[in-house]
Amino acid sequence: MNMDISLFQVGLLMVTGFLAGIINTLAGGGSNLTLPALMVMGMPAEVANATNRVGVLLQNLVGVRGFKKHGKLETDDTVPILIPSIIGGLLGAAAAAYAPSIWIKPLLLGTMLAMALVMLIRPSVVAPEPGMPCRKVKNTPASWWGLGLAGFYGGFVQAGVGFVLLVALAGTLRYDLVRANALKMLCTLVFTLASVILFAAEGLILWLPGLILALGTMFGAHIAVKMAIKAKPETLKWFLFIMTLCGCIAAMLSD
After folding, report:
1. Looking at the domain assignment, is residue 82 inside a domain?
2. Is a pLDDT exceeding 70 seen at residue 178?
3. Any keyword DNA damage (predicted)?
4. Mean pLDDT for the chain overall
């Protein structure tokens, strides 16, 4: 699929992509900016949803490399963490390719409200006490379900998947927010790659706007990794909560 892009639209995609790259790296919900930007350009919801994955994919590639460079990407339990995420992502992408777009808003809104309530009522779920030992996936059956559901949600909607992954990684496996963010980006990178392949096969991706958007998200992710390394845990926790509330508002206002 192809489309003509004006200079204004290039700027819109770059700016929203940059902001989304920062938001997604530190918390989640950046697609609440980029999806409307793509739809303003005249894309149907399913095409915008698919095209958005190009920016998400490359943004997470930059983020993963950045966290690894700073020694914040845990690799001991990577494969067991990725397996349920990949399975869920494939199922979610397959469902999104064929499901009516009317299902997207209820799922997005319900998920954002649930995440906001979790962070408000039990903030320790996403912000474990410093020094708390991490758990292994093989010893934590709940993590399989959490990561699988996060993958499905990410494959289906994408917007806000960072919140769901953080709850799974910090809540069940007890990673601190910096390391959970690094693993979140690795999981998102893998199942987004699967989503991009499926959406591309269905001809739903507009590559030019997707790559322009990706330039912004990649730069935003590069900046945000440095911010995450330096930020206090309390600051990251509040930023995460605020972004979750913004995600709820965006879901309620979306068409």
Report:
1. yes
2. yes
3. no
4. 84
